[in-house]
């Protein structure tokens, strides 16, 4: 297994170095080719995305627009995969220059006032940049990134290596809370959490998302309530044919501290879902429509 891990790392490193040196137009060509291959061999994702779009938009979006949007989703997915492989070989200053930061005062003011914050986002645009372009900007913070590991140790090592490239501690979502409690027990804690995936009802709470019932993690709300820190949404939009990106921050969300902790957490969690939905409605083609987002309440829509 160790030998396989070394081989895989060598292949990924060679590919990343190669992708970092080719002209941008040729890099985009690789994105298009990989997206085409994924569309051809993975029809399940296509059907799941179509089910989501039919469920959310119905006849408000034409069949042609739905098909075009799903094709863009495949391209964005291919971009994130290839970009994640090559980003370690791109100089940090060159990487950062590709980003424009909008309303960054929301996170900066929250960090200054609360001595910590929770960054939330979604599988939207270039979401992996949360672990590459943001950490150097908040270098005084103790940063962590939550993620799911796979059953393959070699792939897990690559995931952790990429996430921790900028001194960000990777925390597996399984059993994450005890690590987060330790992190937020000190000042200047800043964890990045993707909160847009379906989870079981026992793991979270029910919220309204696109006018439908959906489950939502409460991790950010619990941290906000316990440690009095703001929850700051950030969405990283893809611009100009994958040449540049826009990281947009939203006003902080605070979990109240009343006698009804359940209601406090529900309200803060619903506010997070609303912020994510607002960004998706603004630019739906940047969201990862392949997830079975509504599975817990509407499993039947994914019966293909």
UniProtKB/TrEMBL annotation:
Main location: membrane
Cellular component GO terms, alphabetical: plasma membrane
GO biological process terms, semicolon-separated: glycolipid biosynthetic process
Cell wall biogenesis/degradation as UniProt keyword: no
Single GO MF annotation: acyltransferase activity
Source superkingdom: Bacteria
Transmembrane segments: 22-41
Keywords: Acyltransferase, Cell inner membrane, Cell membrane, Membrane, Transferase, Transmembrane, Transmembrane helix
A Pfam match: Lip_A_acyltrans
InterPro entries: LipA_acyltrans
Compartments it resides in: Cell inner membrane
Keyword Nucleus set for record: no
Protein name, UniProt field: Lipid A biosynthesis lauroyl acyltransferase
